[in-house]
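Running this now, will post back.
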Amino acid sequence: MTVPMRRTLAAALSVSLGGFLFGFDASVISGVIRFIKPEFGLSDLELGWVVSSPAFSAMFAMLVAGPLSDKVGRKRVLTVVAFLYAVSALLSALAPSTWVLVVARMLGGVAFGAALILAPLYIAEISPAKQRGRLVSVQQLNIVLGFSAAYFSNYFILTAMDGSSWLSEEVAWRWMLGIEAIPALVYCALAFIIPNSPRWLLMKGQSEEARRVLVWLHGEEGARTEEAGIRAAMGHKEGEVVRLNVLLNRGLRYVLLVGLLVGVLQQITGVNAIYFYATTIFEQSGIGADASFAQAVWVGIINVVFTILAMLLIDRLGRKPLLIVGLLGVAISMGITSHGFNQATYEWPMEHAEQLDGITVAMVADVTDRTYENDIVFKNAVRARLGEAMYREHEAAIIEVSARMNASLILIGILGFVASFAFSLGPVMWVMLSELFPNRVRGLAIALIGFVNSAVSWFVQLVFPWELSHLGNALTYLIYGVFALLGVVLLSAFLPETKGKSLEEIEQDYVGAG
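Update: finished.
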């Protein structure tokens, strides 16, 4: 590897640490749910709001981050992002109430919303065409490493609980959230070191500084080639304000619709329901709370392995094949998961009910030692006898002893989903968004699609607990599978291939298409 290439890789890795923090923040909540749901007495929608609140603020951050970075630079905005990550982690760990926790998590949402937009944009703007797909995918690799780190961290803290005031069940979730401050502070330091985007510098007329950065990144010869291509593609004057309605111009409609399609599909197939509620999902299969934390670790491992595989193949096979194969895998995996839950039965033994604090034989005599063919009917019957608060407190324990299903089938389905998503929609979406749009509108276009993407993510996370309670496990996962099949049809028909093309060649080929 040449010295310039090592520098480009170092800059890409530094920026993509924001992805690690997003992944950590996203999945760490899956372990926290077990503790905060009874502690704060959260209903299904309240729990959904705590989990989804970062996505809510992220969608507005995404809408602003791109245009703001066009004005003040990618580097400055990323520096603020790093600071917000650290503040969010510390405030979340100290939260005395639900609403303080929500506010703290929304600050984190602002940070990762901006980072998810700016990191792939920045990396695409510093990368040579032949390595761009792989380098932009470093962002997704860091995201899944963050997922994995959070699952491992949660499991370690859970198993290390010793009942002391420093690591009791009452404070374990605070450690889970607060430990994120460590990588956040590292990100703060790195944000000051990275260079500005050379494309942004040229857009702002800072030719000498842009030239210096290009030479540092690509060497003398590579810098001349990159600068010539960038200047040839610059389609607006320095200082010109690019407004949202520009994206509706005829020449941009095709790439905008493709970007929106991929952005919606990435979230509507249920990925953040799986990641954010991983331990809850495994608890629903009846394996118990502790085993659920252990199985969530496998989600992180599979995520990393298949993201690396996608990175190795994305510049060889192309973006479109990975998306089609991955979506088919998502559909099949969700079908397996739905079938596993559909075959489940539930029977709550009386002897177990008598062992739970606050429960008497008289309270539950008519719902124990009976077989239920449906998870909704079973949960509603038990909830009616115990009351909402007591049911929430004991739900995991009740499901563990009552569920009769093939838990291995559920695990296969969920891990299959994670592998398929990590191989396709996870890394490929951000690569394609960083490629499809001309330099003059790239920040604005990615901001708009990021807003839509995050809005769908927020809705999926918000309603997931409600879906499990009212639609049931089987129907919930079946819905995600149907969306994936629809995505296969639409992407097969409309998705272009951008493999191996420079950003300027992509603009020439596809802007004006459709």
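Residues 3-39 form the longest helix (37 residues). More later if anyone needs it.
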